[in-house]
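Budget justification aside, the reviewers requested a transparent look at the raw inputs and outputs of the sequence design task funded under Objective 1. We therefore reproduce one unedited record. The lines immediately below are the structure tokens for a 327-residue chain.
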């Protein structure tokens, strides 16, 4: 096994049937194995590995179809001396018209949520745990120290309940309402949002930037909701989830090759935001929605993403960066 070189590494969720057909079609000295929760493509030929690597990177990103790739090689007994040339290299593909779904209706672009090692997303896992911990504390009447007391007096902000908390040094209340959930379904919904949106952002961008994004989202959503409706008790991590939505939305505009989060999910989240803001969800369900928290979190995510991208952070989400970290 020590003589076999790793050509490329794929996640377990990646369907390699097209690659298997490609190997069989050209009788290439390649094998596919599974090691350490990854699918590895191996070869004993260093030259072949060098030729195939950029081709496989483009296929992994969905830019080319391996079933349409053609190889040319001279008839030599030793594969390491063979002149293997990928016809569909970068320059030639740029001149070829892209095949549209109408040309082949059976082929559709499918987005698969990537899997990440748990040690790459510790903050997301902590946030998911906090969703359920906050719900547990709420139903057992232990959450009062985490919430901002509603203000029923209509006093100026300097005389409000929030000002009273801050004067007592209880600054954590600006963040901790995001932890408290008033129902199990609410906790589940937000935990799912963190799992789908948060883990790709943390795994690609790093935990430090992710912590800043989460804290900014919690702060913006909680303060926005309190200023909008100071007399209403509120809680939940929906504002943080919408900060992730805003951040991901800008990233996908700045770095079009990044598709860890399917665009359809962001579209659904934005539609839900609008339906809640218009009062349609409350009208049909009778459930109060913290719309200011959603909007405040969303715009905080947009703003942070813009600053992040201006300083070059989007490079971490580029196809080349992701491919290089896979190897």
């Amino acid at each position: 096994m020590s003589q076999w070189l790793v050509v490329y590494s794929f996640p377990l969720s990646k369907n390699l049937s097209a690659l298997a057909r490609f190997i069989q079609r050209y009788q290439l000295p390649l094998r596919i194995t599974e090691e350490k929760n990854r699918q590895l493509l191996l070869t004993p030929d260093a030259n072949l590995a060098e030729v195939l690597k950029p081709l496989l990177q483009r296929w992994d990103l969905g830019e080319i179809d391996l079933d349409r790739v053609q190889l040319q090689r001279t008839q030599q007994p030793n594969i390491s001396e063979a002149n293997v040339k990928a016809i569909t290299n970068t320059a030639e593909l740029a001149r070829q018209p892209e095949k549209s779904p109408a040309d082949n209706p059976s082929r559709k672009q499918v987005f698969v949520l990537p899997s990440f090692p748990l040690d790459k997303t510790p903050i997301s896992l902590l946030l998911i745990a906090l969703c359920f911990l906050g719900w547990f504390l709420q139903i057992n009447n232990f959450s009062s120290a985490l919430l901002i007391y509603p203000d029923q007096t209509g006093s100026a902000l300097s005389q409000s309940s929030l000002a009273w908390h801050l004067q007592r040094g209880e600054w954590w209340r600006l963040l901790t309402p995001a932890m408290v959930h008033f129902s199990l379904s609410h906790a589940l919904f937000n935990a799912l949002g963190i799992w789908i949106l948060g883990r790709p952002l943390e795994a690609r961008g790093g935990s430090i930037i992710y912590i800043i994004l989460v804290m900014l989202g919690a702060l913006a959503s909680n303060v926005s909701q309190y200023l909008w409706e100071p007399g209403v008790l509120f809680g939940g991590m929906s504002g943080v989830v919408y900060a992730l939505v805003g951040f991901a939305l800008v990233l996908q505009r700045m770095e079009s090759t990044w598709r860890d989060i399917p665009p359809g999910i962001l579209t659904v989240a934005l539609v839900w935001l609008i339906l809640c803001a218009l009062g349609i969800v409350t009208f049909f369900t009778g459930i109060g929605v913290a719309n200011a928290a959603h909007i405040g979190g969303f715009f905080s995510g947009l703003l942070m993403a813009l600053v992040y991208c201006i300083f070059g952070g989007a490079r971490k989400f580029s196809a080349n960066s992701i491919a290089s970290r896979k190897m």
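The first helix runs from residue 17 to 26. The longest strand covers residues 5-11. Computational costs for records of this kind are itemized in the attached budget.
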